[in-house]
Structure formats: C-alpha cells, structure tokens
C-alpha cells in the first residue's frame, strides 16, 4: 500500500522575503551622540550589523496530488505569505506551483503545477464511515526528510481544537510531526480520509495526538477552490447558542440538544422562511443537530441556493419550515452577517437602584429615557432594566449585571417588572425548574439564558 501511495505525496517548500528592518538595527541617534558610537562599536564587535536588502525565509510542508493534470492539496498555513512555492515530486522533480485558492476557515489550500506527463492522483474516501479504532496511514515530509510513512489508528472523531468555525478533526496516534502538515491520512483501502493539519505537543515533537481535516469537509472546499477560486458556503442567517439542560427544561424539551436561535439576520434566508428568535433547530436537511456547533458545519456543506427542510421546536411543538440557503461569502461582503455571540456584559458603572421590584434576585425597573441614558442603552431598546443583582443569585452566576435589559421571558415580550414576575410565576406553576429569558447585554447583542426558579 505504501509503495502504491508514495508517488502521489509531494514535498512543498516555500520562500518568503523578510523585511530587513525586522532584524537587529541601530537606533536613530543624532550624529555625534555617544550612544550612536556605542551601538556602532557593539555591532562591529559582534558581527551583527544589519545587512542591506531583503532576506529569504523558507518553510517545508507536505501535499498530495488529487488530479492527474497537476492539482495538489495542502494546508493553507504551509503556503501562507509565500512569495514562491515549489513542489517536489517523489522522483525529485521540482516544479513551481501556482496558488489556485485557499480557505483560512478550514486551513486548506489548492495548488497547480504544470508537468510534462500525467501525475499519479489519489482518491477521496468517506470520512463519515471512519470509526474510532480503524487503522490509518500518514505519509508526509516531517522535518524535511520527505516520503516518511507512519501508521496508527483513529483515536477520536469530531474534535474541536478551536482552530476555526468548522472544527471537526479526526484525531490519530499515527506519528505526525512538523512538516507533515498538508499530507494525506489514508484508510486501509488507500483512500484519503483526512489532511494532516495540527498536533498537540508540549515538546514540539509527536506525542501521539495529531489532527486531520476530514475528507468530507475538505473535498467540498477543494471543489469550490478548483471551480471558483474561492469557497461558496451555505448561509442560514442566524446567531445561535448552546441548549443547556436548564434551557431545555424551560422550553419543555426532553433533552439538551439542537441549536437555540438567539437572533435572526434581517434580510437573511432564515428571516425570509419564518425562523424566529427562540426557536430551537432540531434537524437541518434531514440531519440531526445533536449539539449547537454541528449546525454551522452542516449549513456550510449544503449547496448555495438549495431549498432544505428545517425542523424547529417552537411553543412546545415541532414545526418544519423550508429555507432557501444564501451564500456565506456574499453575506460577509455585504455586511449582512449577524454579530457573534456575546459573552456576559461587564458590571454596570451606575449606582445600584434599590427602589424597583425584585424578581429572582434581580432588581427591575421599567425602561425609561433616564435609565437608557444612565446605562448608555442603544436607541430603540425595549424591555425591563436590571438595576441591581443579588451576588448570591443564579442571575449573578449567569453573568447578569446592572444595565442589562430583559426583553422576553418565557418567549413573551415584557415591559414592566410585573410582566416578568407574571411570566416567572407561570413557568413555576407549570412545573418548570427554570425560566427562559432573552437578555440584551452590552450594545445591541441579545442572547437567551435560563434562570433557576428559586424561591
């Protein structure tokens, strides 16, 4: 198997011009300054006087041929900022490569070389059917040695290492080191099921924890780069958050699964289809959303313009809506994207108010112009203002602060503290152990959270 696959794996080297100003330089002292004489003497003595002109930096990585006409896959970080990319084949033929396209979100890049003969191409495998415990083989260019083969098993799947928004890495204990980046990870049929991308290593060498971009994610990116020179991902137009056990209980869900819609982008596909803030997306195009971070990957993999069914949990019932997906990149360029989920706001700077009504450890007051000015709330804000929070309450634990605004309780708009209390009492009366609130924190970003129904 190694004998058959080695000719399709290539070594990649890059060169990059380095600004000489980044190296050691003499500070700009006036002529005749004793400090200037000191630095002149220091650089002359140690032979470190800056040399004029740019310097060249080189780096090494791996790649593999996916088309006999000369298309080669590698990691984006292997060729990032490169002025020149050289691909060395298994027979030591060196070819200059053109960068066809790159995707920073998945760390994948596509190169093209011109050869005088068809090149031995590899085939994609199905990374979805790969199981933990399956044997795998990695081939690459560790430390510039070239053509190195290692074997191991799949240690885990769907790893999120905070490398990007679509993290879904295959983890393997096949030895992967610096220089293996961009190389293929094979199943035992010789098909590429991953692109070796990262390692976890306190020492800098292999400790048996390597990560590969799964083939099913990479091949769609590669097809887009090949056809369009850029990616074209599906776009739904929602800002989502995790469904915690408390949120699930407050909504009447049997399990903490799905993706809670915190807000819907105006003019986006979700808005047009009728998806609302407070909906929980349970399935997308027939695929279950077991956890929140699965939804962006599935949406991104779906064809732009496709009309797909989306099942949501709304008002204690399942409903299905049809959504025609937009294009993520076009939405980014036009500035339509919903803002990222915001963390808890910082403590309010205003003096706590103790004259309002207290509910679940929060002192609440109706939103007035004076309060909007006091807490610097955005124009058009509506709801009930939190003016003080009991430090021992669940509200404080969840990060609520003076100046936050409660917009909805139990998925109903509120305008007065009595509205909040009534909704809380209703949730308590229905046997819930928590109540769902839509809260506007700093700026105009809103998110859902569930507060325990304390006495």
From TrEMBL:
A family per Pfam: PDZ_2
Keyword Signal (UniProt): yes
What class does this enzyme belong to in the EC scheme?
Answer: hydrolase
* Location of this chain's protein in the cell: Periplasm
Keyword entries, A-Z: Hydrolase, Periplasm, Protease, Repeat, Serine protease, Signal, Stress response
InterPro entries associated with the record: PDZ, PDZ_sf, Pept_S1C_Do, Peptidase_S1_PA, Peptidase_S1C
Catalytic site positions: 77 (charge relay system), 107 (charge relay system), 181 (charge relay system)
EC numbers on record? 3.4.21.107
Kindly list the GO molecular function terms attached to this UniProt entry.
serine-type endopeptidase activity
GO cellular-component terms in the record? periplasmic space
Q: Which domain of life is it from?
A: Bacteria
**All residue ranges annotated as the PDZ domain in the record:** 225-316, 356-442
Q: Identify the SMART domains for this entry.
A: PDZ
**What family, per the record?**
Belongs to the peptidase S1C family.
Spell out the protein name for this chain: Probable periplasmic serine endoprotease DegP-like
